[in-house]
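Entry type: protein chain
Record version: 2
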Amino acid sequence: MKPIETITKVDQVRHAILELIFSGTLLPGQRLVEARLAADLGVSQATVNLALQILHDQAIVTKILNRSTNVSRYSEREIENLFSVRLILEPAAAAAASRRLTPAGARALEQQVDAMRRAARESDLPRFCLADYTFHQELYRITENPVLIQACQAIAAAPFAYILCDRPSALPTDYSSLAEDHQLVIDSLRKGPEAAGKLVSELIAAWRMHSVRALESAVETEKTYAYR
């Protein structure tokens, strides 16, 4: 039997906001009104504020003190910068996670891969993205290195470049393959730190190249339609 996980109210609100972003209900650059979110979700405004602060620390929303909170909007250049940092941090996190991997940690990762597979079969993009997001959060947590976890949190937006760059036409289509990429990560963690770091580095380099090409293609398509 799998242990029952306790999800705090803040985490529930954070996941609800992420689903709204991943589904396109909340768009890049759109303002988030805390009072409205609190009313819609049936929680206190303080709970919403805490959830948004975590998402701000992960660069998924942008909080401007005493002004507003908006869904983050990234340029292609900013996406490249995110991936450049991700290429350094995440292989290191994978190697560290391999050293600390326990059966419980592996199960937590496998649970998210199973969720990705189900979402891929059902073409449920919001659920797929949420499972993808949670997979990486679990991977960072396994390292038990607070400094590395905090650094990795700052690049949490990187896997969702297409959505936060406001380029829906650049979205990937083979979600089943993406889910299996994450299974490969788990397999590499079991093989040891060197194998884990190497595989994650290769995967992120491939995802980065795909992201750049897809986003450039989306821009060219938009320009073509603009001239018609």
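Comment: Residues 224-228 have pLDDT under 50 and may be disordered.
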